[in-house]
Design goal:
mainly alpha; 0% strand
C-alpha cells in the first residue's frame, strides 16, 4: 500500500487541528454598523459572545449609568443594540461559548473581565504590573495586547 494517501490524510488532520486551535481565540466581528458606531464611540465594541444575554440586558438596560458614564441613546437605537447582543450572546447558540464556562445559567456578570474564562486566561499569562502600564490603562483595553480584537481576533500578538 502506498504511503501517499496516508500522508494526505495526516497532513489534512494536522491542518484541521491547527485551524481549530487558531480559531479558538476568534469571535465574530461586530456585524451591525449601528452597534459598532455607538458602542465603539467610547470604547472598543465588545463581541456579544463574551457575555450571556442577562449580562447584556443589564448593561444595555442601564445606559444612563454605563460604568459611571451617561451613555444614553434613543429608544430605537437601544432596541437595536439589545437585539444584536441578545441574538449573539455567549449563551444564545446551541453550543455555549467558552465565556459561559464556569458560569451558571443565572449568572450575569457586568464585566467581561469578571468571567471565569477571562480571569483564567489572563491571570495565567499576564503579570499584574501589565495592568498598570500607561499604554494598557485598563483590563478592558483589549487592543493594547490583542491588536486585532476589533476584528474578533484575540490570538496572542
Amino acid at each position: 500500500m502506498p504511503l501517499y494517501p496516508v500522508t494526505i490524510i495526516a497532513v489534512a488532520m494536522v491542518l484541521m487541528v491547527s485551524t481549530a486551535v487558531r480559531a479558538d481565540e476568534r469571535y465574530t466581528p461586530i456585524q451591525d454598523s449601528v452597534v459598532a458606531e455607538e458602542c465603539g464611540a467610547c470604547h472598543m465594541a465588545f463581541q456579544p459572545q463574551m457575555l450571556p444575554e442577562k449580562s447584556w440586558q443589564k448593561i444595555i438596560g442601564d445606559l444612563s449609568n454605563h460604568f459611571g458614564e451617561d451613555a444614553s441613546l434613543d429608544p430605537e437605537t437601544v432596541t437595536r443594540i439589545e437585539k444584536y447582543h441578545r441574538d449573539n450572546a455567549a449563551d444564545s447558540g446551541w453550543l455555549s461559548g467558552k465565556f459561559m464556562r464556569g458560569l451558571n445559567k443565572t449568572s450575569a456578570p457586568l464585566r467581561i473581565t469578571a468571567t471565569p474564562y477571562w480571569v483564567r486566561e489572563h491571570n495565567e499569562e499576564v503579570p499584574e504590573r501589565a495592568w498598570r502600564d500607561p499604554k494598557v490603562k485598563s483590563k478592558a483595553n483589549c487592543t493594547a495586547c490583542h491588536r486585532r480584537a476589533n476584528q474578533g481576533d484575540y490570538d496572542d500578538d
